[in-house]
Amino acid sequence: EAQVTQNPRYLITVTGKKLTVTCSQNMNHEYMSWYRQDPGLGLRQIYYSMNVEVTDKGDVPEGYKVSRKEKRNFPLILESPSPNQTSLYFCASSLLVGGVEQYFGPGTRLTVT
Amino acid sequence: QQQVKQSPQSLIVQKGGISIINCAYENTAFDYFPWYQQFPGKGPALLIAIRPDVSEKKEGRFTISFNKSAKQFSLHIMDSQPGDSATYFCAASMETSGSRLTFGEGTQLTVNP
User: What is the pLDDT of residues A1-14, one digit of tens each?
Assistant: First the structure.
């Protein structure tokens, strides 16, 4: 089954404790992206990657890091989480062309206290 | 900088009624306009999409109307059903940016039985 998986689905952590949210896709997609979803703000892009070792900032990259060492994986790293990073996070993937469907993971609900 | 503005933020419709969600964009280079549907606890999924060379696209009960001169597009859900209750996001992208999507703020639709 073609899918994007994220882990963990729920995470409660404390300020400053480094964490990683994993994302993996099995569709051989070149393009992968991380979004955060906040009420009234929609989906805002954090980082994206157009292929292995190629990453770039989205609209809200501050406080986040990513890496793309393998085509299927695109982890999101919060090295020193803060309460304003409490949000719902989605990973997505697609082919590297315009006008195609992006496939989203199930989401990770992060709470930083 | 929100390049795609979506309204209303929430919408309540009776079963059998018509749901209308509107989006406006600023960047005339956008050339692909998808709508994504998100059910609670799930990631967004592509519902329907349109390119600016047509003014309307219909798939079942879902129709996109596109007004290039006004830089606006809208989603119409005919004969709305309780199962349509979800959050809807409009989005836009341009061929030169590949797969990057800019999303609207989202509309939470509730269809009462």
Answer: 889 999 999 999 99
